[in-house]
Known about the structure:
Mean pLDDT: 96
Shape: elongated
Strand order of the largest sheet: 11-10-7-8-9-17-13-15-14
Distance between the termini: 49 Å
Structural class: alpha/beta
Number of strands: 17
Bound molecules: L-homoserine
Order of helices and strands: EHEEHEHEHEHEHHHHHEEEEHEEHEEEHE
Largest sheet: 9 strands, mixed
Strand content: 15-25%
Amino acid sequence: MVNIAVLGHGVVGSGVMEVLASNGKNIGKKAGKNIEVKKILDLREFPDLPYADRFTKNFQEILSDDSIHVVVEVMGGVNPAYEYVSESLKKGKSVVTSNKELVAAKGAELLKIANEHNVNFLFEASVGGGIPIIKPLHLCLGANEIFEIAGILNGTTNFILTKMIRESMSFADALAMAQKLGYAEANPAADVEGHDACRKICILASLSFGRHIYPESVPTEGITKITLEDVAYAESFGRVIKLIGHAKKLEDSDQVSIMVSPMMVSKSSQLSSVDDVYNGILVRGSATGDVVFYGKGAGKLPTASAVVSDIIDCIRADGTIKSLQWQDSTESRVADYKQQPVRAYVRYLGEKGAELAASLFGEVEFLSREGRPMEEAAFVTPLLSEEKLEENLNNMRRQGVEILGKIRLLEE
Ligand code: HSE
């Protein structure tokens, strides 16, 4: 038998208890030992639970208990999670977490501490909910050089966009529904402003490209400016709007082009049919070509599934798993996004728009939608740098054209 402790009894923590209770025998077989949750840390009281006697409010009780070998951190946030995780690792306990904020902020450091103490720091649940992606990246795809990752990494925003597209539901109603279903972050701004997706693409890029990429260095846009009009133009162009985390290793350089933004995705791309709370992650490898991972990216049991699978790996591991490592980086390896090539959809109001679009951008493709008012139009630019795109749009603004929307295209 192996004792573990769970820090936090919210959506994910209670899901972990549920999965262990409902499938404990099988899980024990896979781990090679039965798993016993000895302590649960939470500041709240849960007197009605059958395991109410295992709750503590004092982390030191867990830290000082040498019979606890694995600590499961599912509290969220960087503090005090960071202190609890680093102290646990230094005490020789492996740690499993679903906390993407923590991994994105402190991953390199915590992996190093785990390595120094011959234990593991595992975080499968931090990206893609129930989808296996971390382990496939460092183990199953280990033969590849990873060139590029494009992912729908946030279930809440994908749920909201799907409701807007398919049911013309308002943004606020769809968000409320996602919150009720337990998909959204405690502060949903992290979802709708793109920060959650940013943390996740940083984790995937750090693992794939070998150096820590910090979220602060990644240009990030959310979905709050997307309208039903944009959705209709995208449809007329054979595309759908998705919030995409994108990272690409630049050729002949150790720099990474990385960004989170709403993008128009071609209906011929597998990512275009990833709907509702599902996530989809496309990984482009040197030997495999494209591999796509798909599944529920948020929610109690899918996330708990990934946590429990990491618990099994910790119990089975003989020391630190060496393939799950990346280096810290003082210098940013993030390429200046303004110099990166992009094609974009632009929606505007103003009579002079068509003439200006053609003279500034060259060959543009005009789009249409049902019910388009006379003064509104939308077009797609040719490939140009982000800097030139902004310069041209500012030029249009100066000449009285109101830019209503700009959405990048995801190139296949
Ligand atoms: N709020 C996150 C999402 C939860 O919607 O994807 C899972 O990380």
